[in-house]
Design brief:
With 160 residues, this protein is α/β, with parallel strands linked by helices. It has one domain (16-159): 3-Layer(aba) Sandwich (Uracil-DNA Glycosylase, subunit E), CATH 3.40.470.10. It has six helices and four strands, in the order βαααβαβαβα. The chain has a four-stranded parallel β-sheet. It is globular, with a radius of gyration of 14 Å. The chain starts with 15 loop residues before the first strand and ends in a 7-residue tail after the last helix.
Length: 160
């Protein structure tokens, strides 16, 4: 079993929660979300909010918190080969109650179909809330350009 290596990102002003599936090997190394350079999360989220793509972890934190975004993953520990979502098995869901009890989360989004699958399987029945599935920012989702992803992710702005 591989353990999720870092805590969620949120504060009392967070009103949107974005849940990924499980951190990549690169994210484990960096001890922060979406650490693989090919993952388009940071480019997409900065495009949604009309800013520059953050380079440092501190800039990434600031970008999210300034816009009321909390970030976490659906899976706590699991068995996984490298960073392959398709190899995930023996999943234990993350407890997101710490975020929901501390912030006024108005909408929950999941980043891609794997996060949606495990959210619907485990988390949804515990908290009783639906999540909106966003198109995955993973490099495995090559069919969608960065520009098209950003356009689709602008749905986040409707919640604010």
């Amino acid at each position: 079993m591989v353990q999720h290596p870092f805590p969620p990102l949120y504060d009392e002003n967070s009103n949107i929660l974005i849940l990924g599936s499980f951190p990549s090997v690169k994210s484990h190394e960096q001890m922060f979300f979406y650490g693989h350079p090919q993952n388009r999360f940071w480019k997409v989220i900065s495009s949604v909010f009309g800013g520059d793509t953050p380079a440092t972890i501190e800039e990434k934190r600031r970008l999210l918190l300034e816009h009321g975004i909390a970030l976490w993953d659906v899976i706590a520990p699991c068995e996984i080969n490298g960073s392959s979502d398709s190899s995930i098995k023996n999943v234990v869901a993350n407890d997101i109650s710490c975020i929901l009890n501390s912030a006024d989360i108005r909408k929950i989004f999941v980043n891609g179909k794997t996060a949606e699958k495990y959210y619907n399987k485990d988390t949804k029945k515990v908290i009783g809330r639906d999540a909106v599935c966003l198109l995955s920012t993973s490099p495995a989702n090559a069919a969608w350009s960065e520009k098209r992803l950003a356009e689709a992710w602008r749905i986040i702005l409707e919640t604010m």
